[in-house]
Structures are given as C-alpha cells and as structure tokens.
Amino acid sequence: MKWSLLKRSYVWIYFSMFFLLWTIRELWLVHYLNLLDPSVCAVVATLIKLLVWVIPVILLIKLIENKNTIRYLRLDQNVRKGITWACWVSFILAVYFIIYYVLILNNGIQLDLGLNGWLNTIILVGFIEEVVFRGFLLRKLMDQFRFWTANSITSILFVSIHFPIWFYNGLFGDIAIIGTIFNVFVISIILGLLYRNTNSLWSVIIIHSVYNLFLSIFT
What we know:
0% strand; single chain
C-alpha cells in the first residue's frame, strides 16, 4: 500500500527537487559559468542540464517505475508518424515566422547565436526538455488525471521552470511577461496534444527544437 502511494505521489517530490536544483543553476551557478570561455561554458552548461534534467528521469523510470526507459518515454514508438507530424508542423511554423517576422516586421535573420545558443537553445533543447515534460511528467500525470487536466498541470509546471531565468533577466518587471507566460503555456498545451495524437516523443522533440530555432533566428 505504501509503495503504491509512493509511486503515485513521488512525481511531486521529484519536481520540487528538480525546480530547486534548476533555480540554483539559473540564479547562482550562472555567475560562475559566465566566467568560463564561451565554448567551455556551452559544453559545461550542456552537461549540467543533462545531469539535472535527463539523468534523474532515467533513474526514476528504471528504479521506481521499473520500466524500459526508451519504451516508457515512447522514443521507439510511432517514430515515422512522429517525424511526419513534426515536418508538417515545422513547415507551418516556418511559413508563419517568415510572413510575420520577415515580411511584416521586416526583421533580419540572425544566425550568429554562438555555440551555447545552437547547442543548448536549439539542438538539444527539444530532447532534454521533452524527456522531462512530455515524456515523463505528462505521462505520469495521465496515470492520475484525465488528459486535459494532466496537460494543463504539465503546462503550468513547464511555465514555472522558466521563472528562474526570467527573474534573472529582469522580465518580471515588465508587463509583457504576462504575454510571455501565456505564450509558453499555450505552446506547452499544443505540444501535449501532439504528443498524445502521435504517441511518439520524437514529434514534440523536433517541433520544440524547430520552434526555438525560428524564435532565435527571426526575433
């Protein structure tokens, strides 16, 4: 009975510890990372994010869920379907960003993002963040709640994990933060829907990285 209760509730303990560790990284450790050479900083930042985000999820799936990690995260299921959906959604995103930011706002394209930008904001962000939020948290919450409730809770948690970096960058002093919070929440809701409809983590991994790519180079 106690073990069954633990399996149902440990996700909240996990997220609390995860949020605390990531807050320390974003508000305190960042000062030391910024002292490093940019290339070294990018690599160290990647290793830290893997350590804080991905490794605990793998351990929890193996030790508490007692499941195959790849199978549990749906990294081996409906791969072709996931990639197909990702390609179509990426195409729609490309059209939107080009029309709105290039043709309407007349923005240029910024490709000089540095190693850290390319590595941690674009290339790996989809995999690392989707393993945690759609692959693990949404999956766990769907064991306890209906999909829309689980997806909404996951999206609130997804928004909250951005709070430390937003605070560090002083965004909470600007009324525009309300729009930012809303946008991130809606994006998370959409990613949850895509994850459910494709039953593959690859769809949201690719779309997440592509969205960050367009956001970085066009805005």
